[in-house]
Amino acid sequence: MAGAILPHPDRLQKRPHHRCCRIFSGSFYLESTLIFYVVSAISGVTHALLWTGQGVYLIENSTPKTVVRDSSIFWFLYHISPVLGNVSAFCTLAGKSSVDAGTRVMILDVMNVILALSVVMFCFLPASSPRRKNPDQAATITDPASEPKPEDCAEALRQAWLVFTDTHMLALMILFVYSGLQIAYSETIYNSSVGFTLSLSQNVKELVPLTGIFNGIGILLGVCIQTLQQAKAFNWTNSVYLTIGIQFQLICYVLTGLNLPNESAFGDTQKTGVLFNSVPLALLSSVLLGIGNMSIQTYVSSLIATLFWERSSQVSAIFNFSEFVWSAVCFIYSTRIGLYAQLVILIITAILGNIVYILVETRVRKRRDAASRKTAVNCDVENNNRNNELVRKLKDSYVSAEIMTFRMLPEE
């Protein structure tokens, strides 16, 4: 929530959180568990500022018509980067049963060089464009008449609380819960479970980066689906595209339950799945996870941006805060309950979140359409009034001309 109390989002583009990111990456050189945990806690605060700033920057430089496209580009670049990392890791660690000191240092050096380049790129980001008023304000559920300019943290937190307690934000919270759970599952838990299932392959550890690569392939397919929407290939709403993504993930959960053993969530096991023990199915599940993840991040971000267009910092902070909290919850219970119980939780929250999204998005769309029709009617009425006024003036001018002509006639 730290990002929600900043008076202006441009402050999020400063450098302190970049320094902390460099400290976090550099802590791996020291090989100290205590230092790693301390730096991780500090890095968590800086990530709150960074993620909130990115969300605000994205909203402020988008319009209601381009926010889906811009969100797609942002999340595509974010999710495709692990593919490059996993390809590099797969090539670097191929044939190795353990990571030696030289390989570890080399990987850390590459990570820090990339991090330094990202800091330089952040410094050259242009300032946010002037805040655009949402032309669909009448269609939004909230009443964002103007962006508040809090003078202190208390006022900023009060504004964040108003956004958090909004009826539709509370309804969407179940989707935020699922988003956080599936991020933790798809990016860490599933990959680890595949690596722990020793019966899949003799070199099962090499499957861990491969699952990340195939997850990236799924993200590419998700981008292709969203490109069809931008090209208006199908006259479908955002709810339909989100539902397609979630359905892919539900199929993945079923396949995972049949392909991996319940004990794979805890550590190495020689057991097999209920029906299958297949590497291709494991990689296919990664593809399905990537498609769904891309859809969820894009369409949830665009919906909350539309709902709270003038509260970009607050809504970005709340969305990211919710995702991070439930990702942490997922990591905590993943060490205490089996894989099958985790899949049941994901399936239930996915179905509930999908239903809530459909209801909220449908209501927003109906209000937007009603506001557009009302605007069109008002324009027609205004045009008719102008035309009638013009006709009246022309008639008056014609009558005046007739009178003048009559007066100029010579008297008989």
Give a quick set of tags describing it.
412 residues, mainly alpha, 11 helices
- Mean pLDDT comes to 76
Quaternary structure classification? single chain
Distance between the termini: 93 Å
Gyration radius, rounded: 28 Å
Sheet-strand content, in percent, reads under 5%
Detail the poorly predicted runs. Answer: 1-17, 132-148
SSE order: HHHHHHHHHHH
Q: What kind of sheet is the major sheet?
A: none
- What share of residues is helical? over 70%
What global shape is seen? globular
How many H/I helices? 11
SS-based structural class?
Answer: mainly alpha
What is the total tally of β strands? 0
What's the gist of this structure?
The protein is mainly alpha-helical and 412 residues long. The protein is built from eleven helices and no strands.
Structural description of this entry:
This protein has 412 residues and is an all-alpha fold. Helices cover 73% and strands 0% of the residues. The chain has helices at 16-26, 33-60, 67-93, 101-123, 153-164, 167-196, 207-230, 238-259, 279-307, 312-334, 339-408. It is globular, with a radius of gyration of 28 Å. Mean pLDDT is 76; it is low at 1-17 and 132-148.
Please describe the topology of this protein.
Layout: H1 16-26, H2 33-60, H3 67-93, H4 101-123, H5 153-164, H6 167-196, H7 207-230, H8 238-259, H9 279-307, H10 312-334, H11 339-408
Helix pairs in contact: 1-2, 1-4, 2-10, 3-7, 3-9, 5-10, 6-7, 6-9, 6-10, 6-11, 7-9, 8-9, 8-11
